[in-house]
Amino acid sequence: MNKPFLRIWIVGLAWLASATVHPAYEELEGIVAIVEDDVVLASELRSRLAQVRQSLEASDSPIPPNDIIVSQLMERLIIENLQLQEANKRGVEMDDETVTRGVQQLAASNNLTIDQFRNALAADGIAYREFREDLRAEMTISQLQRSIVNRRISITEQDIDGLLNSPFYKQLFSDEYRVGHIMLTLEVGSSDLVVARASEEAQKIVNELREGADFAQTAMRKSSASTALEGGDLGWRRAGELPTLFTETVLEMQVGEIAEPINTSGSIHIIKLLEQRGAGTETEQQTMVSHILVQPSEIRTDEEAEALISEVASRIAAGDDFAALAVEYSEDPGSALNGGELGWSTADAFVGMFAQTMQKTAIGQFSEPFLSQFGWHILHVADRREQDMSDEARREKAVQVLARRRFDEELEEWIKELRDEAFVELRL
């Protein structure tokens, strides 16, 4: 699974400070779990515990008892370990160049150069090499998940038609919901008695939540979902991007409402609608945008790439033709020969920094040079329009929505299968 906390720490850089860990866990040494052909070390657990506690403290969130955090962290470390072993078996790996682009993207998302980013890490006691290896592991797991889970997803024309003809169509494509999720997992082949007891436990949790119990704290204590340590928060999603079994329930809920438990064959789900925003629409904002891309390479350092894009920006400011400069300098083969033109595009067609810069650049203006995971860019925004979605575009959007929705469902199922089939011996 992805490591959501890594993203939280990077965004705020709050996780980079030192932390005090409960003394009982400072005494741990050696191996805390055997996982197939590998192990989880006590040092890994201590490090992750310190990071989680710091993240909670930085956000002023109540901190659960250490034993609850440790239990969740142990499961997360085991799942990550299993996925890295699976990636190794399948030959999934991230080369140094790919990891470097990932670091560049993280630095750019914080408006830092690579050197500034490295200095920020060093100032707070984080070794750059260690940070790169953590990022490499996260990227490897993400690539493994995509390669495995996408093959498990099947979308038919009937599925697409069903979504497009849904009475909730406008909400599915435009309204956004922030949902809290708690999952209680049932073992395969559980007896009726076990299922009944789990259902009673779920109903008890729902009652406690409705009486005012904190949802995030309850999720940390009770949930077996991968979002447990984030308080069960699934983040902002369009309704169509929520797991299928939640969608219709969420659309009928009021903000703050706790739904009745939702039972499936292998689990019980409890959801809360935390927030809702947006309004139904069938149009999308499109931008006529062009760009110039300059990339670092084996023969061009990061500093040289930055210097070159700055030179190009100076020539644009002096009145040189953008399209001609794109033909001369841009290293995007798909657009360079067209003067850098990318045509009418929506923000979701681009990576984060590109999309953000495009949206805040005024019509007729050029952006300042900025760094994305692909290199240094300058954008020119020629025009904007609100465009009705064509039938073809609606169908393409429906496929994307269905794929994202089913990805989360299949990912949880695949992780559960991986965990159930693995040999794990806890030594904590």
What's the quick description here?
The chain is built from 16 helices and eleven strands. It is of the alpha+beta class and 428 residues long.
Write up this protein:
The protein is an alpha+beta fold. The chain folds into 3 domains: 4-152, Porin chaperone SurA, peptide-binding domain (Triger factor/SurA peptide-binding fold, Orthogonal Bundle), CATH 1.10.4030.10; 157-281 and 394-421, Chitinase A, domain 3 (Roll), CATH 3.10.50.40; 284-388, Chitinase A, domain 3. The chain has 16 helices and 11 strands. Helix 5 (96-109) crosses helix 7. The strands form 3 sheets. The protein has a 4-stranded antiparallel beta sheet, with helices on both faces.
What brief labels describe this structure?
428 residues, alpha+beta, Triger factor/SurA peptide-binding fold, Chitinase A, domain 3, 3 domains, four-stranded antiparallel beta sheet, 11 strands, globular, disordered N terminus
